[in-house]
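Handout, page 2. Input:
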Amino acid sequence: MSKEIKVSIKENDKITKNLTVESGTQVFELLNNFSENSENIYAVKINNELCSLEKRLQYTSTLEPVLSSTKDGAAIYRRSLCLLLATAAHKLFPDTRLVVGHSLDYGYYYTFDADISLTEKEIESISAQMKELVSRNLPIATERISYEEATVLFEKLGLKETRKQLNYIGTPSIKINTIDDFSDIYFGPLVSSTGVLKTFELLKYGDGFLLRFPKKEDPNVLTKFVDQPKLFEVYKKYKDWGKRIEVTSAASLNELIAQRKVNDFIDITETFQQKNISKIASQIVDRGTVRVVLIAGPSSSGKTTSAKKLALELQAMGYMPKVISLDSYYVGRDKTPKDENGEPDFECLEALNIELLNNNLMDLFAGKEINLPSYDFHTGTSYFEEGNTMKLAKNEILIMEGIHGLNEKLTPKVPAEYKFKIYLSALTQLNLDDHNRISTSDNRLIRRIVRDYNFRGKPAEGTIDMWPSVRKGEELHIYPFQNNADAVLNTALDYELSVLRVYAAPLLRRVTPLMPQYAEAQRLLSFLENFCTIAPTAVPNRSIIREFIGGSAFKY
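Output:
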């Protein structure tokens, strides 16, 4: 006798229907109960857990649709598109490894292993194969197979890094996704069939190509490609470095941890990063005219520690850096522009007293003493404090870090030759495996969760809740100006997620199914489980990671 369960349909934060269905009913059977067209529903949240449409309901559930135009919907589409590409590439080039790289604009960079440079014709053939799979509207299946079956399957398919990662997964069964005759390991819900995946293009780039996808706001349209050559060059340099030291994936890192060789790897990664900071310091000195270094980067990219490390390098070259905080130049709450919700928008450029900042800078460069402003965050007022002055000597150089550093409108009065702009990005060269990348945004979010709890007492759900707003500010005020940078510094350290897992996992486990942030917390937990842990005591006291976990030799 079948059991009946209660199901509630939730849309726009309101329960719109209450149903009684048989236990074992699949979600896709209930899609007509949502007001949204079923074609726009890529998955559902069941009691705040992200699930595929094939999921069978077993207990009292609240169902909320995951739409194509949402962050989760876009992630599902992109993940599904990656599997479609891997399937097409395997059909055409079964003996060659396809390897995903980092994101670039609205796309992911791919290459074939063994330094094979793809031709336009080969890329067109892959694209044609993908379109053929889309036209066939094949099901995208999700199933569990035994651990032994998974090892045989991934070896047969030539998924080297995926097979290696199984050595660090102790479950008796492995979840996989399959299109036609190709399978890959499961990392999250996918769309139900290939017919959904109509909007994409392959674009030749470098030695490989970009898999381009739409923005979440308009899931049926591809935007014009905006190149980011400086960011790409930094990524390529780190990727080549990873190949040389033979650590290119989570599995490679886990192998070092298991073999107790990770301490040397930590020293190598820290040294490599410091070497790149030193190169940037040399660029600044060699230019000979720089009076102010402007540092910008998204949230949790390590701006504060990077500025301090750069200051040490400049001191070693005979310069004495001084820091000007852009926070001191807020115009005051009453003069700050309002956002769409009527709240003060402290992230917009107009929230700063640009005229005063530029006048102060030009006075400093002319050898004059200035009276620096101060800002009271409690009262929201700007004021001048007696004795808060600054003057620059000949061997002194300013360092300013803030989200608008790369925007020319921040320092319009300062001659170009006086300025040196640095963009920071936490761009790890590691992949999870051949076809699954590590998101720069996820890396930064995990850093932020750890720091917010350690230094502000904010729980993980609080950081997760405000993250979309942070990302929106980055897209408005930082990313459009990346190409203005004179140098790009990668602040990611390839061992850091193994350290951050120690702190972040317990915080994420406190997010319960009763909270709307539960799905994201579970996704991040699942992501972190790909990394074996490293004891925080192994982290050097001047590492950027110390900015987030504590114990830094620097004062903040």
